[in-house]
Amino acid sequence: MTRAMNLVTRIRVMSEGILSLREELSLVRADLAALQDTTARTTAEMVRRNDDVGRRLDDVGRRLDDVRAAAGRGARRGTLARRALRVVFLVHNKDAWDSIGEVVQIMRSRDDFDPIVVSIPHHYGGDAPPKGEGRVHRFLADRDVPHLRLRKAEQGWASELIHSLDPDIVFRQSQWDADVDPAFTAENLAWTRLALIPYEMINPTRNVPWDEPAVDSALDQHWHRAAWLVFCANDDVLAIARRQTVTGGRQYRAVGHPKADALRRTVPAWPLEGAAPSRRRILWSAHHSILDGWNDFGLFPSTSDEMLRWAREEPGIDFVFAHHPYLAGVFRRPESPVDSASFSAWLEEWTRLPNTAYWRGEYAPVLAAADLVVSDGPSMITESQVLSKPTIFLERDGHVQFNSIGEMIIQGVHRVNDVASARIVAESILSDGDPLAEIQRQTTLRLFGEPGAAQRIVDVIVREAADETARI
Questions:
Q1: Domains and their CATH numbers in the chain
Q2: Distances from the Cα of 246 to the Cα of 238, 241, 398, 440, angstroms
Q3: What would the pLDDT profile of 182-232 be if each residue is shown by its tens digit?
Q4: 0.85 cut: is pTM over it?
């Protein structure tokens, strides 16, 4: 009876709010009509009235947002009543699957969860038209993951689809609203519970400037703020969230990261077939941020020829080149210092060597098989340490500064500014071993803890849902 009375009260308040807004809009319309009669008004009076109407329209818009948010909160109150929690996973990025895959698997094995995976197109910063759903679908099908499809031609049905599924909880792979259809933005999914497992295992850098006023783009985007739960790797990240977010990190839970556990389970595989097991293996990974104004880590334009020379002069070492998925797109931008044609010409020289390969598939098996990692990317120098791989960090001057977590991470890598220095360090590591191995082990333990992050995430959801149900 109490729940019913509370629901009636919320509906009455929302109805009154909508009625008030309708009355306000009627008055605004009347003022706009009066403005059209310009014969008896001075220019100054018209400007004043126009400014007044503009302010009132802005106020109406804000009040509509408030009513919409209230309606969303009311809708959420009516959920969590099923025998099984219905959890929808919106998947647009196959490369980030390891962040959620084990969580989906655990939920599928339980009677108290009803997980639904949906493959959707991506926009990546507003790219048009949307694309990529086919690749995600094939990726999921290859792994026998049951899923629904929202093909790019069906984008107009995005809102209808998510409403028909009627989820209790929605996971999206990215905090960036611009990556997906507007139907899947934080604002348009305010009627359900949003959740996030970050696609990156951990953010090691200080805030990349974003929004006005600036917010921490890794911790305080609109999705983070609207989320019911955000899962993070450790107490250090949790402490940063509590200091630097509008919500004070109330929705954050420190559990480890499923991607770190997936890395630990990776079966090694090396692309250069037929190579003798005794040959040393180097994985070279290039970041996409070769332009200025983002986090500015990428060094491919200034290191590619030197890496080619290294591989040519060391025929007894295998080299595999892999890069961040976004790098190919950067080459197509007019301001890129390397265009697609130049990259293709360079790549032809690289792959012509007998001891080199270019890899675009899953990088984790290659990382697991490598003896040494050379990278300019902040994520790769983190992931390499999870697998205890000696790592050389090609560091670009002027990159975004590391945060307190990043300062821990770089203690386990060898920092150099050019390929010539990297070659000297690599020779020492490959002959004498890595003096930073114990630091890597300690860092990984502190940042990601023991395996089992996916199970801890499921346990938190069960506990939080039970607590919320008890409060309704």
A1: 85-256+452-471 (3.40.50.2000), 271-448 (3.40.50.2000)
A2: 14, 9, 28, 33
A3: 999 999 999 999 999 999 999 999 876 677 788 888 899 999 999 999 999
A4: no
